[in-house]
Amino acid sequence: MAAGAPEKKKAPGATAEWYELRTIRLRIGAQAKVVNDFLAEVMLPALGKAGAGPIGVFETMVGPEMPTLHLLIPYESPAAMAAAHATVQSNPAYTQGAAAAAFHGAPATQPAYGRMESALLQAFPHMPKLLAPARSPRIFELRTYESPGGPAHARKMEMFTKLGETEIFRRVGLTPVFFGRTVIGPRLPNFTYMLTFPDMAAREKAWATFRSDAEWTKLKSTPGYADADILSNITDLMLRPTAYSQI
User: Residue 164: CB partners within 8 Å, gap ≥ 6?
Assistant: First the structure.
């Protein structure tokens, strides 16, 4: 775990944590450095002091609207998130120093970023705390499953929480980092999960093994649980961690 990130307990039965999943759409050019410097030198240390973390910061490797940064920020509760945001805003380091000045003072003609969006997610009960991988060579896959309505959304979640899909994932090498149901955000109802791999070759091998797995074949054939019944769209992004990411 990176310095400054609070230790997180993974005890069974722990209260499900909450995630802020923030997307920062950058512009090609020098301004990307302004954002990364601000996050590395100002935002992550300030959030760590406010009790949030470990915090993941990832760049899009494969996906739309590149370049884009994705922040994964865990909190104990929505109240803890609000308190952390207030603490960060009141921290003098948030507005002082070269990195902060360059970020906050970027002119409208050359803004630090294009747009910033944020969603609030609650961890699935069967995986109430995120599991960060070892800080060795690694990539991440971020997948969002949208459903046509509430009942279909609930059934797709059940496949992971009650019917064994998470266990199949782990067995075939699809290693989860977190699962989160979107409470506030776009394209509801949906949930998002993150997987980690050593590299793209390991990712391709794991998904190939999963698709041919006998237990998965049986599960996806269960009446009422086929993709055509419970999914309306899947968004899939491949990410790499920044040098300063704590995940």
Answer: 215, 219
pLDDT digits (tens, 9 = 90+) for 8-41: 444 445 799 999 999 999 988 888 999 999 999 9
Length of the chain: 247
Tens of pLDDT, residue by residue over 81-122, are 999 999 999 988 898 899 999 999 999 989 999 999 999 999
Residue of 148, 191, 189 lying closest to 21 (CA atoms): 191
Evaluate whether 100 touches 38 at the Cβ level (below 8 Å): yes
State the Cα–Cα distance between residues 56 and 244, nearest whole angstrom. Answer: 9
CA angle 229, 235, 241 (to 5 degrees): 145
Tell me whether the omega of the peptide bond preceding residue 54 falls within 30 degrees of 0, making it cis. yes
* Angle, vertex CA 138, rays to CA 197 and CA 214, nearest 5: 0
Rounded-to-integer distance, Cα 190 and Cα 138, Å: 26
Pairing type for strands 175-184 and 56-62 reads unpaired
Q: CA 7 from chain center: how many Å?
A: 18
Dist. CA 140–CA 241, nearest whole Å: 8
